[in-house]
Amino acid sequence: MTSTRIPPKELTGLYGAVVKMFARRTFGQVPKSLGVMWHHLPVLKASMGFGQKLQKWDQCDESLKSYAHMAVASLVGCSFCLDFNYFMAHNQGLDVGKAREVPRWRESVVFTPLEREVLEYAEAMSQTPPTVTDERVASLRKQLGAAALIELTTVIGFANLTTRSNTALGIESEGFAASCGLKPMAQPSARLQEATAS
Predict the structure, then answer these.
(1) Fewer Cβ neighbours under 10 Å: the N or C end of the chain?
(2) For 129, phi and psi rounded to 5 degrees?
(3) Full-prediction pTM beyond 0.70?
């Protein structure tokens, strides 16, 4: 990990001890990103709290939400989120073979038609301005139902919040996936790299 744009602070006090214990139990380490966010505890608590609530939602398939978050991370260029979500997919028993292919999903043959629509939707939501179409929403609503689509949409919105914040603050991958022996992520497709460069 390169230097973050705001240096991490030491996690202190009772709350810091609890956060460090939770992080070590969940991730095997205390991410440097927590030290960066420690400069503003209400922001850290709000983000962690919403992230934990979001993980309890169950109207949309967990793998679809995971792939969507990774598609946002790949598009935005957040190596921390890609690495972290790959690690989480492994821990949640999701298909890590598919997860590692998300950065090149257009060229990959591992995704179902529905998964491909979800990945396209995640990218369309993440463009500035968004490029979501009525047809895409209607198709996903028909396949997933309204509640699942709202959940998926909110997950993608949260992914944009976290990936863009991490990228702006210089928070990069901390090797979560490598620590549990996962193969490296596929490289983003040339088409995606060209789109994000322009």
Answers:
(1) C
(2) -75, 165
(3) yes
